[in-house]
Amino acid sequence: MTQKRKKVLMIEDNPGDARLMQEALSEAKDLLFDLEWAEDLAKGLQRVSEGNLDLILLDLSLPDSHGLDTFTRVQSKAQGIPVVVLTGLYDEAVAIKAVHEGAQDYLVKGQGGTDLFLRSMRYAIERQRIEEELRRSNDLNQSILKALPFGMEIVDEKGNILYLSERFESIFGKEAIGKKCWLVYRDDKMQCYDCALKSEIRIGEVKSIESEGIIGGKIFQIMHIGIMYQGKKAVLEIFNDITERRRIEQMKSDFVALVSHQLKTPVGEITGYLDNMLSGLTGELTSKQKQYLREMKEINSRAYRLISDLLNVSRIERGIISVNMQPVKLAEIAQLSVKDYVQDINRRGLLFNVKNDDGDVLVMADKDKMVEAVSNVVNNAVRFTEEGSIGVTLTHDEAFGYIEVMDTGKGILPELLDKLFTRDQTLSGCPRADGGAGLGLYIAKSFMQLQNGDVWVESSADKGSKFTFKIPLVVV
After folding, report:
1. What is the pLDDT of residues 46-81, one digit of tens each?
2. What pTM did the predictor assign?
3. Which of 118, 200, 304, 311 is the most exposed place for a label (fewest CB within 10 A)?
């Protein structure tokens, strides 16, 4: 591939110097330069305006211009073209000022020889190319930063603001740089989150949190990225305003709560009517009628449980659910949790056993919520255990009481265990081929955490599961 020849303009009033440069370039076989000569600044500027130049060699002492002003005038016309200043010994200081103003290099006439001149010219062109690439890259980055709907800042490990994006700078002003970030953003002058995160994050590591009350009560999702900034470790923080998203989520949650509340009462009343009919209060029923009514009751019970789950999830998400902690027997919680399922367990031909080695041990719990949490797991165990057994075991240690619910059902795939207690799952119970666990386990987890307890699972596919509930003992 043929190397492109570089076009060099020499603005020099001394014909001898121009001739010497021409000879030097012609002898440099590995450097392909075409030299043009202008004897004064006016002619030089005219050639610069025509373009298609790769380098300018500029004498600062010309018939129509002298000193630093010569370089300034050329620079204003030669955008993107590297300039190497030519000077004599007496005005070397001016040449150094020209370099500070943007010249790529300066050369003192009569010193260094041809090799130095050629090397300086080659390096000047290469440096200019690199600077242009960096400038284009920086312009692109700035355009992207301006277009992004995020606020961004860079802070050091102690929370001092080192950089603000234009979006944030327009809000807080450049004077915010150097201040503590939480003093700028929060009205109450308190740290908005644990700033240990800034010192502990590693270069390239990404962490995301949500923090409320920043910038006039808005809600932000903040992404933290460990970076190097000006030679030191820092944190890039990207602020995504999710206030509107949260408002919409709140509206959806309120709507679900309203609908669930309105549906729960009539569905419960239907169950009462079905019980009355099955008990014979409305007259004798044929076996076929009883079968239909029992199936209707089972369908209605599932609907009632779903409505209750939706209502509980809505209350949990809105943060309006509370607990009434009282001493209660662990055995009583277990008994109430399984009583509605004993008949179904027997009907399915499953073995059922309760092991209680703890007598009347007392735990500190909200009995209703604890019972509902355990019931959700028992319900899942009954639904997804086709053969074998279901067992409940009660134990305790020095600080906690434990209820273990074990089954010999389908088990849970390992990749689903981490997501089992989240509300993002689609099925209520152990995973099937078409989905994972549902609202019941999310509610159970939330209820246990509200009571300073917890629930977790051990499981393997086709070998069953064991759910363990932990609740604090009554302090004597």
Report:
1. 999 888 888 888 888 888 988 888 888 998 888 888
2. 0.47
3. 200
